[in-house]
Write a sequence for this structure.
């Protein structure tokens, strides 16, 4: 007899297969990332179609098979309603789902489930603070730094990862973290870093996401911090985050809409 798996899961992505089926990627609390074949889900009469959508937290019963898991039951536990009227939420959400889908492919313990859950809650509780580009970039910086920490690749930001000192001087970003320019020259450099970005990186890496919104971030500082963290993420996973282009597009639409309102 095949043992069924009952677990909480987030819908991460979906792709069509055949005439009426879909393969849905779930991030589960116990099993990590799994691909589930859902037969008939694209038919109008399929009972779980509305449940198996991205940003939904679901309770599922899965049945192992040779290639995919099969879905026996699904219950909606919570919908985070990431789709707001300006698409800010879906822009942020797509980046988060793409990042966690990449990271969790190397993990079978489900450790990214709680991380995604915490940040979706943080998004829900701080939506009013995410009206500015700086806040959006700091939110994503915190999320991606947390992903790197869970993967065991937390960059060193408390001092120079080469000499171990925190003396004043010109800083640069390298694959190991922050270093003095005099310690590594120009090897493996992202770019030089301002002192404001160095302090910001230390704040982002040490404080909970909700606390970050209590501070004032300039667009320039937030962009520099995010660029550096994105460099570290790309250096480790060797994959580009494609949904960032869509997020930029969403932000331009937000600004355009505000201009029209004025």
């Amino acid at each position: 007899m095949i043992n069924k798996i009952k677990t909480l899961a987030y819908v991460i992505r979906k792709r069509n297969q055949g005439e009426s089926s879909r393969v849905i990627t779930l991030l589960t609390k116990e099993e990590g990332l799994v691909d589930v074949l859902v037969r008939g889900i694209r038919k109008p009469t399929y009972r779980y179609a509305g449940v198996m959508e991205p940003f939904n937290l679901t309770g599922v019963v899965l049945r192992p098979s040779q290639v995919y898991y099969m879905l026996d039951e699904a219950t909606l536990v919570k919908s985070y309603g990431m789709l707001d009227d300006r698409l800010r939420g879906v822009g942020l959400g797509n980046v988060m789902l793409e990042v966690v889908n990449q990271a969790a492919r190397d993990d079978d313990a489900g450790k990214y489930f709680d991380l995604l859950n915490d940040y979706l809650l943080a998004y829900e509780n701080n939506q009013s603070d995410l009206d500015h580009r700086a806040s959006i970039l700091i939110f994503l910086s915190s999320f991606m730094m947390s992903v790197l920490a869970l993967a065991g690749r937390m960059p060193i930001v408390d001092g120079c990862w080469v000499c171990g000192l925190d003396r004043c001087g010109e800083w640069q970003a390298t694959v190991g973290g922050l270093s003095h320019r005099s310690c590594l020259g120009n090897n493996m450099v992202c770019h030089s870093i301002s002192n404001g970005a160095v302090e910001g990186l230390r704040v982002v890496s040490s404080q909970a996401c909700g606390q970050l919104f209590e501070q004032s971030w300039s667009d320039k500082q937030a962009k520099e911090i995010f660029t550096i963290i994105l460099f570290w993420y790309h250096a480790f996973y060797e994959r580009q985050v494609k949904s960032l282009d869509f997020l930029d597009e969403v932000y331009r639409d937000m600004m355009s809409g505000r201009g029209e309102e004025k």
Summary: Strands lie at 5-17, 21-28, 32-38, 56-64, 69-79, 171-174, 177-180, 192-193. The CA atoms of residues 242 and 251 lie 15 Å apart.
